[in-house]
């Protein structure tokens, strides 16, 4: 039990309406005697939010706060991550990880508004999200108590959680035959649990809920043009869209062509490996489009450094350090380097693949006069002196090894 939380205190629960958070409401009331305010963040998960409100109230919540955070999620979290080209372990586009700091920030805001002494979440004691939520809370309100039921109760898994829900008259979508734990927002949907916990088994087709099977996707490729301003996507096929409209558009296109499916075994922050299935159709398109433009507008050294920043940024996001000083400092480089990432990228979508075919930018570093095989301004004779100096260390090393009889 968390010390300092008294009966009749108010606790704000990060509530999704899923299995875990649904049973936490009655559990908090039974074990702490507190009033529970459910906070639901609308990140574009597609749920009927009024039904979620009703479900929370029926489960025993005193009140329900729902916030539409879709624009904020994309503009201040997902799109800045896109600008950094952060990818965890070269595969995962961080759809769940990037949402958690935003939820934590607003969880604290709601707690302040209702005078809560504590907040609560449904993350398990073996997952990454417990760290992400709690680091976010610590960044904004280290005085708030945090109740993590999965670290306290005797429930050992999802099957027992389903029994608890049934005993308390709470309807949940999870069943023993479909026990997957899912997290969806405008950026992606993740799937974990059930048969997916066996890395030797192929991903069953019924796991996917968003994207078309690439084998059944259209037989005709589709072309899409993504426009950027300073690294932020702003248009699709020449039509300027709001952040939410743009994301919904690229998600539809990507889903239609089976783009963005991955199955990976990843290294969790807490020290174990886990297996997850992710669908990120629109995000995959946007990453490819952004990379298409940076190949045109970043010089070699900027690109090399940006790759190291991307790797570090991915770790910070995955580990829950979005609100850290280092992440903010790295973001200064990301923003500066993206000032030239303005223009358009043409991509082809076809049976699970997205490929860059053309890109244009007013900040293009590409010089046809230098790159052409037909004449141009390049003087081939300049290469001789360059190669001599570039390879000079190799020649010096050869003479040293020859002198020592080792070459």
From TrEMBL:
<dbReference type="InterPro" id="IPR014729">
    <property type="entry name" value="Rossmann-like_a/b/a_fold"/>
</dbReference>
<dbReference type="GO" id="GO:0006526">
    <property type="term" value="P:L-arginine biosynthetic process"/>
</dbReference>
<dbReference type="GO" id="GO:0005524">
    <property type="term" value="F:ATP binding"/>
</dbReference>
<keyword id="KW-0055">Arginine biosynthesis</keyword>
<feature type="domain" description="Arginosuccinate synthase-like N-terminal">
    <location>
        <begin position="11"/>
        <end position="170"/>
    </location>
</feature>
<comment type="pathway">
    <text>Amino-acid biosynthesis; L-arginine biosynthesis; L-arginine from L-ornithine and carbamoyl phosphate: step 2/3.</text>
</comment>
<dbReference type="InterPro" id="IPR048268">
    <property type="entry name" value="Arginosuc_syn_C"/>
</dbReference>
<dbReference type="InterPro" id="IPR024074">
    <property type="entry name" value="AS_cat/multimer_dom_body"/>
</dbReference>
<protein>
    <recommendedName>
        <fullName>Argininosuccinate synthase</fullName>
        <ecNumber>6.3.4.5</ecNumber>
    </recommendedName>
</protein>
<keyword id="KW-0547">Nucleotide-binding</keyword>
<dbReference type="Pfam" id="PF20979">
    <property type="entry name" value="Arginosuc_syn_C"/>
</dbReference>
<dbReference type="InterPro" id="IPR048267">
    <property type="entry name" value="Arginosuc_syn_N"/>
</dbReference>
<keyword id="KW-0067">ATP-binding</keyword>
<dbReference type="InterPro" id="IPR018223">
    <property type="entry name" value="Arginosuc_synth_CS"/>
</dbReference>
<feature type="binding site">
    <location>
        <position position="122"/>
    </location>
    <ligand>
        <name>ATP</name>
    </ligand>
</feature>
<keyword id="KW-0028">Amino-acid biosynthesis</keyword>
<feature type="binding site">
    <location>
        <position position="129"/>
    </location>
    <ligand>
        <name>L-aspartate</name>
    </ligand>
</feature>
<dbReference type="InterPro" id="IPR023434">
    <property type="entry name" value="Arginosuc_synth_type_1_subfam"/>
</dbReference>
<feature type="binding site">
    <location>
        <position position="181"/>
    </location>
    <ligand>
        <name>L-citrulline</name>
    </ligand>
</feature>
<feature type="binding site">
    <location>
        <position position="132"/>
    </location>
    <ligand>
        <name>L-citrulline</name>
    </ligand>
</feature>
<dbReference type="GO" id="GO:0000053">
    <property type="term" value="P:argininosuccinate metabolic process"/>
</dbReference>
<keyword id="KW-0963">Cytoplasm</keyword>
<feature type="binding site">
    <location>
        <position position="190"/>
    </location>
    <ligand>
        <name>L-citrulline</name>
    </ligand>
</feature>
<feature type="binding site">
    <location>
        <position position="128"/>
    </location>
    <ligand>
        <name>L-aspartate</name>
    </ligand>
</feature>
<dbReference type="InterPro" id="IPR001518">
    <property type="entry name" value="Arginosuc_synth"/>
</dbReference>
<comment type="subunit">
    <text>Homotetramer.</text>
</comment>
<feature type="binding site">
    <location>
        <position position="278"/>
    </location>
    <ligand>
        <name>L-citrulline</name>
    </ligand>
</feature>
<feature type="binding site">
    <location>
        <position position="266"/>
    </location>
    <ligand>
        <name>L-citrulline</name>
    </ligand>
</feature>
<feature type="domain" description="Arginosuccinate synthase C-terminal">
    <location>
        <begin position="180"/>
        <end position="394"/>
    </location>
</feature>
<dbReference type="GO" id="GO:0000050">
    <property type="term" value="P:urea cycle"/>
</dbReference>
<feature type="binding site">
    <location>
        <position position="128"/>
    </location>
    <ligand>
        <name>L-citrulline</name>
    </ligand>
</feature>
<keyword id="KW-0436">Ligase</keyword>
<feature type="binding site">
    <location>
        <begin position="14"/>
        <end position="22"/>
    </location>
    <ligand>
        <name>ATP</name>
    </ligand>
</feature>
<feature type="binding site">
    <location>
        <position position="41"/>
    </location>
    <ligand>
        <name>ATP</name>
    </ligand>
</feature>
<dbReference type="Pfam" id="PF00764">
    <property type="entry name" value="Arginosuc_synth"/>
</dbReference>
<feature type="binding site">
    <location>
        <position position="92"/>
    </location>
    <ligand>
        <name>L-citrulline</name>
    </ligand>
</feature>
<dbReference type="GO" id="GO:0004055">
    <property type="term" value="F:argininosuccinate synthase activity"/>
</dbReference>
<feature type="binding site">
    <location>
        <position position="124"/>
    </location>
    <ligand>
        <name>L-aspartate</name>
    </ligand>
</feature>
<comment type="similarity">
    <text>Belongs to the argininosuccinate synthase family. Type 1 subfamily.</text>
</comment>
<dbReference type="GO" id="GO:0005737">
    <property type="term" value="C:cytoplasm"/>
</dbReference>
């Amino acid at each position: 039990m968390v010390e300092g939380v008294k009966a009749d205190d108010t606790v704000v629960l990060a509530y999704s309406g899923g299995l875990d958070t649904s049973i936490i409401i009655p559990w908090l009331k039974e074990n702490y005697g507190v009033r529970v305010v459910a906070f639901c963040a609308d990140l574009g998960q597609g749920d009927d939010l009024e039904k979620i409100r009703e479900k929370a109230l029926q489960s025993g919540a005193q009140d329900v706060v729902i916030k539409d955070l879709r624009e904020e999620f994309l503009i201040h979290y997902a799109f800045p991550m896109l600008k950094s080209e952060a990818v965890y372990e070269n595969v995962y586009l961080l759809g769940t990880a990037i949402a958690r700091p935003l939820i934590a920030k607003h969880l604290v805001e709601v707690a302040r508004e209702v005078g809560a002494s504590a907040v609560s979440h449904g993350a398990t004691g073996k997952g990454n999200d417990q760290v992400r939520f709690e680091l976010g809370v610590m960044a904004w309100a280290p005085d708030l108590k945090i109740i993590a039921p999965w670290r306290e109760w005797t429930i050992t898994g999802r099957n027992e959680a389903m029994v608890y829900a049934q005993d308390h008259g709470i309807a949940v979508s999870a069943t023993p035959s479909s026990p997957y734990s899912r997290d969806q927002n405008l950026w992606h949907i993740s799937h974990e649990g059930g048969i997916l916990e066996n890395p030797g088994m192929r991903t069953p087709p019924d796991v996917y809920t968003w994207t078309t099977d690439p084998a059944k996707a259209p037989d005709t490729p589709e072309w899409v043009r993504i426009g950027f301003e300073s690294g932020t996507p702003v248009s699709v096929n020449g039509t300027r869209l709001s952040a939410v409209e743009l994301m919904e558009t690229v998600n539809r296109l990507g889903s239609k062509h089976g783009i963005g499916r991955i199955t990976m075994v990843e290294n969790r922050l807490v020290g174990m490996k886990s297996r997850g299935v992710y669908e990120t159709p629109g995000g995959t398109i946007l990453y490819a489009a952004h990379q298409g433009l940076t190949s045109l507008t970043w010089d070699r050294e900027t690109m090399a450094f940006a790759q190291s920043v991307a790797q570090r940024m991915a770790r910070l996001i995955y580990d829950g350090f979005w609100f850290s000083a280092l992440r903010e400092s790295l973001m200064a480089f990301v923003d500066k380097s993206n000032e030239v990432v303005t223009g358009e990228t043409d991509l082809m979508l076809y049976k699970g693949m997205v490929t860059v075919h053309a890109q244009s930018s007013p900040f293009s570093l590409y010089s046809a006069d230098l790159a052409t095989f037909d004449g141009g301004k390049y003087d081939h004779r300049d290469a001789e002196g360059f190669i001599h100096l570039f390879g000079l260390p190799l020649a010096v090393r050869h003479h040293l090894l020859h002198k020592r009889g080792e070459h």
